[in-house]
């Protein structure tokens, strides 16, 4: 009997795993440069956390959660996203009682029972940031900038940044009613009518042409923001302009999760087909209070590693170092094989990635393995070399070979690799 990765999941194996690591590293580098601390939370949580945190009217909660009962009768759910768990951890550990804002980053898999297609999986990985206890629009701008900068640092040029404000507890209810009144006058199917009653803004996001055609005159949230939201949004926009971030005002941008207020944004890519969002986020003032913490503001994002890699591919970018090694040791003879073990130890301790062959491979096969490892240098070590306390250092790029005293070897390689 043979097995395959479960439907909607995939393995990350070499050589692709090198790209995976490099993209994950590049996305998390920006928050680390901006003083965000690392957090890690469990991959499953009490089901109630997501029902309250993500929102009962979202597809994520109603259709996509992996929920199960454990042997102790608790209802648990594999996390469908990162924000709820991270906020739970901030509240549980009282991080908000220290210096504010709390700024953290995380990376890890999320699970959603979706119909799999390119760019949409049942397990996907996000690099995310969350901040708690900051109302300053400069923080919104920092979060948006970090996401945009992460994509820029990978060399991606086909991305667009969509920006919107969803208003707040003060101004959204009136807008919601206005939109509902408008939607009630349209010719919509029963499902969409129901959605209009529960979460009317999601209807604006409907992809069907017959629905979109009727929405041309729909009222837009940005025309109905209260003074404070308008001011906040203006400031976020002007910070982004100062930062040189190009964004598109997108008053119909609605995110799939319920917790957003004010700033919302998405980074989309033209080369990915239907699943075009590489990442998104926004402000979620009040969410912490919903899950039992104090009533503090927050803003964050989640960037999809899987889709970012698809975008990197679509643009034909080479990201990551495909080489496994800096140095590859080729022992010829029994004494050389023995010496190789300690030589590798010393090379690795000096921070040089080093490997060798096993099982007494001949010179030809070993040199092929050296090439395949991506190493810049091969060290050919014969029994006679050992007697003379030297090793043949071969630069695999230029083909140049020099005899180097074994005692000076590590220093010589460190010097020539610049490590
Ligand atoms: P989200 O928009 O649901 O937001 O997901 C963020 C990103 O994760 C998406 O833009 C996409 O790249 C990736 N993603 C989501 N679902 C899938 C999937 N099924 N397959 C592949 N990739 C996927 C959130 O999850 C929020 N927690 C983001 C956030 C953090 N907002 C504030 N803080």
Automatic annotation (TrEMBL):
Pfam families cross-referenced by the UniProt entry: HGTP_anticodon, tRNA-synt_His
Source taxon at top rank: Bacteria
Subcellular location: Cytoplasm
Domain Aminoacyl-transfer RNA synthetases class-II family profile: 22-331
Catalytic activity reported: tRNA(His) + L-histidine + ATP = L-histidyl-tRNA(His) + AMP + diphosphate + H(+)
GO biological process: histidyl-tRNA aminoacylation
Keyword Nucleotide-binding: yes
Any one of the GO CC terms: cytoplasm
Main localization, broad class: cytoplasm
EC nos: 6.1.1.21
Keywords: Aminoacyl-tRNA synthetase, ATP-binding, Cytoplasm, Ligase, Nucleotide-binding, Protein biosynthesis
InterPro entries, per database record: aa-tRNA-synth_II, aa-tRNA-synth_II/BPL/LPL, Anticodon-bd, Anticodon-bd_dom_sf, His-tRNA-ligase, HisRS-like_core, HisRS/HisZ, HisRS_anticodon
Any GO molecular function: ATP binding
Residues involved in L-histidine binding: 81-83, 112, 126, 130, 255, 259-260
Subunit structure of this chain's protein: Homodimer.
Family assignment from sequence similarity: Belongs to the class-II aminoacyl-tRNA synthetase family.
Listed HAMAP family: His_tRNA_synth
Name of the protein described by the UniProt record: Histidine--tRNA ligase
Species: Actinopolymorpha pittospori
């Amino acid at each position: 009997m043979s097995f395959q990765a479960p439907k909607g999941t995939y393995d990350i194996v070499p050589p692709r795993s090198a790209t995976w690591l490099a993209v994950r590293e590049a996305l998390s580098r920006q928050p680390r440069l901006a003083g965000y601390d690392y957090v890690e939370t469990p991959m499953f949580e009490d089901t109630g956390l997501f029902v309250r945190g993500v929102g009962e009217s979202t597809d994520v909660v109603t259709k996509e959660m992996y929920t199960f009962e454990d042997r102790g009768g608790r209802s648990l759910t594999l996390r469908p996203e990162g924000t709820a768990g991270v906020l739970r951890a901030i509240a549980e550990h009282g991080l908000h009682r220290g210096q504010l804002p709390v700024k953290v980053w995380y990376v890890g898999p999320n699970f959603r029972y979706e119909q799999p297609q390119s760019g949409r999986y049942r397990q996907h990985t996000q690099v995310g940031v969350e901040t708690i206890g900051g109302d300053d629009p400069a923080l919104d701008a920092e979060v948006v900038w970090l996401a945009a900068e992460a994509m820029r640092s990978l060399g991606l040029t086909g991305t667009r940044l969509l920006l919107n404000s969803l208003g707040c507890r003060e101004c959204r209810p009136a807008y919601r009613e206005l939109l509902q009144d408008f939607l009630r006058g349209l010719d919509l199917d029963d499902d969409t009518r129901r959605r209009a009653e529960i979460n009317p803004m999601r209807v604006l996001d409907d992809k069907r042409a017959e629905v979109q055609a009727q929405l041309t005159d729909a009222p837009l949230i940005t025309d109905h923001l209260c003074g404070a939201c308008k001011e906040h949004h203006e400031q976020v926009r002007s910070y982004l302009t100062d930062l040189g971030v190009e964004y598109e005002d997108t008053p119909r941008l609605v995110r799939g999760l319920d917790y957003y207020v004010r700033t919302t944004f998405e980074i989309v890519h033209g080369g990915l087909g239907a699943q075009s969002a590489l990442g998104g986020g926004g402000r979620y003032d009040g969410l912490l209070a919903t899950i039992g913490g104090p009533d503090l503001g927050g803003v964050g994002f989640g960037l999809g590693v899987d889709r970012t890699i698809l975008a990197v591919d679509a643009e034909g970018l080479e990201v990551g170092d495909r080489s496994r090694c800096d140095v590859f040791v080729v022992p010829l003879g029994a004494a050389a094989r023995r010496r190789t073990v300690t030589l590798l130890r010393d090379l690795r301790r000096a921070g040089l990635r080093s490997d060798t062959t096993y099982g007494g491979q001949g010179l030809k096969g070993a040199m092929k393995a050296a090439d395949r490892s991506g190493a810049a240098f091969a060290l050919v070590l014969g029994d006679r070399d050992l007697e003379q306390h030297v090793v043949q250092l071969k630069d695999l790029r230029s083909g140049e070979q020099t005899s180097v005293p074994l005692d000076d070897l590590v220093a010589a390689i460190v010097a020539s690799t610049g490590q």
